[in-house]
Here is the input.
Amino acid sequence: MIRGVVVAGVLLIGAGAVMAQQDVAVKQDNLMRAQAKQLYNVILKTAKGEIPYDQKSIDAALAQLEQDVSTIPTVFATNPKEDVVNATYGSSQKIWKNKADFDSRVPPVKKAIADVKGKVKDVASLKLAYESINSKCTDCHETYRLKLK
Ligand code: HEC
Here is the structure.
């Protein structure tokens, strides 16, 4: 009886740890998806003419993106040691071996956003803004993001 309780306890702790790691991985993935929402669903689609140019939504997307990007170093503070279930992309273990270098990929994205904020006025300037921001996202992805499928 006592043994049964102990085994159940260990199983529960094990399940809790797995869930905590999934929570961390999901939180990290959600941050990236939120950034993608602003950069791809609003900025890129407008730049491509798929949705009409709307100054307010562009300004809001840039402001939100700037805020989200600043949180990358803290949201990626912990190594979840596992990927989000069924995810297309995962985090390379290199992140936690070179956390300072990983974090150093964030300020260039923030700078690219700050440089264009208030200057994007039309589709042409938006296209340039997209290219410059996206190239900085890619600088981190090339080293630290893994394609899982
Ligand atoms: C400092 C590094 C870093 C920067 C900067 C960065 N990312 Fe990521 N990104 C990652 C890592 C690591 C992953 C894989 C793990 C994950 O999905 O959480 C990822 C995954 C993604 C994914 C895939 C999500 C999925 O699972 O479908 C998207 C989309 C994405 N990032 C968008 C962006 C955008 C847009 C920017 C720029 C505004 C950006 N990222 C900047 C590190 C970064």
